[in-house]
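== Item description ==
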Amino acid sequence: MLAMAAAGSLSVRSLYSAEDCSGTPYLEEKNIQDTCMQWPWEDGLYVTYTCNSTTAVSNWYTDAACTTYRDNGPITYEDVGVCGDGVKRTCGDGTFFVVAQYSDSACTTKQMDRNMLVECWASGTATTPASQKSSFGDILTHSTYSTSDCTGDATETMEVASCGNCTSVSGGVYVMWDCTTSTTVTSTMSLTVTVTSTGLTSGTSLTSPMKLHLLTGMVGFVFLVLNF
């Protein structure tokens, strides 16, 4: 599947140093709504989020397709915009990209289209600011920063995956997206140059192939919290 940019709604849980949630959050959990994902702190637990102006809802499941509710507390609720002990849940818009998700390492059995977040989120502690951001194209890169809003130079940037390759992500599933469409034209150039004390005159012929890449289509690929 070709990756596509899209805008959608997020359910955001923010942690603040101040108990009244004043100032800038030091940690943000940004989750794309209505997207099944593995809960990273417990094996075999999956969750989807929904959010409106008053209530944030978490739906808890025991399968990767988010079809079977867990027995204990299958649905939990939080008030939106209400601070409690430095924690606040909000709703907002986010930018993400859409890739195909598969159940096998060869990426032959497609499960669904998966939304992946590609915007900045705070990832620090109450005493140490930090943030992260992912960028998609033919290459998926993940960068970390020493600020809470991804400003300044990245302290680290690493390549996580590349287009056309089946890549394992969290939850025991795999994703893959198509590479940018391009056309390659091969030509031959003949160049005859000799350098003498009086300048450029005549000489031998050097023939070399040159590849000219003509970009005919371009598609960008936004992680969940990437959930990688």
About this structure: Residues 182-215 form one domain. The chain has two domains: 4-176, 182-215. The two ends are 19 Å apart (CA to CA).
